[in-house]
UniProtKB/TrEMBL annotation:
The chain crosses the membrane at residues 151-174, 210-232. Keywords: Heme, Iron, Membrane, Metal-binding, Transmembrane, Transmembrane helix. InterPro entries: Cyt_c-like_dom, Cyt_c-like_dom_sf, Cyt_c7-like, Multihaem_cyt_sf. The keyword Chloroplast does not apply. Residues 1-16 have a biased composition (Low complexity). Residues 1-20 are annotated as: Disordered. CDD domains: Cytochrom_C3. Pfam families: Cytochrom_C, Cytochrome_C7. Signal peptide: none annotated. This is Cytochrome c3 family protein.
């Protein structure tokens, strides 16, 4: 039986040795691991699946290649080791991956280079606003500096208030001293006893006119703002049927957005993840949580989870996620804000036509090594010397791009 042969075959020298593989392969493997494997595996500790340290010693690369690409096929073949792993982890199915042999070898090279090192929970630097390591430390320093500036401003305001009160008290004391003097002439007494006539100021036609104009302008401004805000939902933060924390999943655990929103790089829409994707992890993790049990009930009843949509565009506007993420190379945070810091997701950006157009006017296009843009860039540089080649330069502000 092929599976039995594979199970009996010792690990061979074809596997990358500890610390083996060139730097480029290890770097590529790091990125591939984070995007495809980190949700379920760690190198030196068990997560959803087994720890991967020593994997190239336990299994030869010739066995690992088909296993990583399509573990279901290897299990179905009757391979003893594959069946044992499958049963040990409660028959949790590992997803199939459309990876090349070179990409798999890069992942293995990176895994091998990390063996014996402290896991991320032991050595990872604290995460602050979704920024780990030194970046988090820098962010913390900036936050500390901002805090000191706020304290300084508060102190200055208090000092100014004390100075004003002190000057008023000194002024009243000086008036009392002057009133006790008998050598003051009539002009001095008149100045000393003069009072501000608030009634005269109130009756002033000029003041009434200024106040009336300002009041009218405030009303007009408030009315225009109310009309302009019709249909806008910036800040919208509905309560979801299941408490899901992006701060925990995307921030603390650094799960790639595309792991759950699988179509974000290849479709017009970024799909709402199905309950099956949740179960990839939660068939093993926090199974007794009341919120996770809601997922179990939805699956048992064969009913979809009724997630509340947050980001809505009018039907008259066309938007394609893949064009922005895959072609444009934009990060999710460009439009959705610091999603990795949100306990409950809300609409971060205005998503108005003006907001989109401003982005198209400012966003440069990476035309390097893309022959499609060669002539366009030449024509643009000839006519607009020094100006960047932006989305707008490529027709990104034409009406028909989004309305047709």
């Amino acid at each position: 039986m092929p599976g039995a042969t594979a199970a009996a075959t010792p690990a061979t020298a074809t596997a990358p040795g500890a610390g083996g593989g060139d730097a480029a392969a290890i770097a590529a493997g790091d990125a591939l691991f984070k995007n495809n494997c980190a949700q379920c595996h760690a190198v030196n500790e068990q997560v959803v699946g087994p720890a991967l340290a020593g994997i190239t010693k336990r299994r030869p690369v010739s066995w690992l290649l088909p296993w990583i690409k399509n573990s279901s096929k290897v299990v179905a073949s009757g391979d003893e080791y594959a069946v044992a792993i499958f049963n040990k982890y409660n028959k949790q199915q590992m997803p199939s991956f459309a990876l090349s042999d070179q990409e798999v070898n890069s992942i293995l090279a990176w895994v091998t280079s990390q063996e014996g090192q402290a896991g991320p929970t032991a050595e990872a630097k604290p995460v602050v606003d979704g920024k780990p390591g030194d970046e988090a430390a820098a962010g913390g320093a900036e936050a500390g500096a901002g805090k000191y500036v706020d304290i300084l401003l508060i102190v200055l305001v208090v000092v100014l208030i004390v100075l004003v009160v002190t000057l008023v008290i000194i002024g009243n004391l000086m008036k009392d001293v002057l009133r006790g003097r008998k050598d003051l002439d009539g002009r001095d007494v008149e100045i000393l006893e003069q009072r501000f006539d608030w009634g005269k100021m109130y009756r002033s036609p000029m003041l009434r006119g200024i106040v009336g104009v300002v009041f009218a302008l405030v009303l007009v401004y408030a009315g225009v703002q109310s009309v302009m805000a019709v249909g806008l939902t910036q800040g919208y933060q509905p309560t979801q049927p299941i408490a899901f924390s992006h701060k925990l999943h995307a921030g603390q655990h650094q799960i790639n957005c595309a792991y759950c929103h699988t179509s974000v790089y290849k479709s017009k829409s970024a799909n709402i993840p199905s309950a099956n994707i949740c179960m990839n992890c939660h068939s093993q993790i926090k199974t007794e949580s009341p919120e996770i049990k809601k997922i179990y009930r939805a699956i048992e009843r064969k009913q979809p989870i009724q997630w509340v949509r947050i980001h809505n565009l009018p039907d008259l506007a066309y938007f394609n996620h893949s064009q922005h993420t895959q072609v444009g190379g934009l990060q999710c945070q460009t439009c959705h804000g610091p999603i990795q810091n949100m306990e409950v997701v809300y609409q971060y950006s205005a998503l108005t036509m003006g907001w989109c157009i401003n982005c198209h006017r400012e966003m440069p296009i990476n035309a390097k090594d893309n022959k499609y843009y060669d002539n366009l860039v030449k024509l643009h540089d000839t006519k607009n010397a020094g100006a960047p080649f932006t989305v707008s330069s490529n027709g990104g502000t034409e009406c028909s791009k989004c309305h047709y």
